[in-house]
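Researcher: Here's a chain I'd like modeled. Treat it as a single chain, no partners, no ligands.
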Amino acid sequence: MKAPGYNYRKARLIMKIIDIHVHAFPDELAHRAIPTLAAQAGIPAHLDGRVSSIKSSMDEAGICISVVQPVATKPSQVR
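Model: Modeled as a single isolated chain. Structure tokens:
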């Protein structure tokens, strides 16, 4: 929720908010990947995994930078 009268754009010039943990997928894969990963993890997804959705969410929340993290989908991908 945004505070009444608070200028988020001006605040962004003073302090940058960085989200250091997001996951993104190509648009043609996101609609399959997100529900599958959310079900496997038992954690609901907040967005649909597309970069455009992340950018919209960032703008709405006043986030300047998001760091995309890789997703390990099988044990062999984790070292």
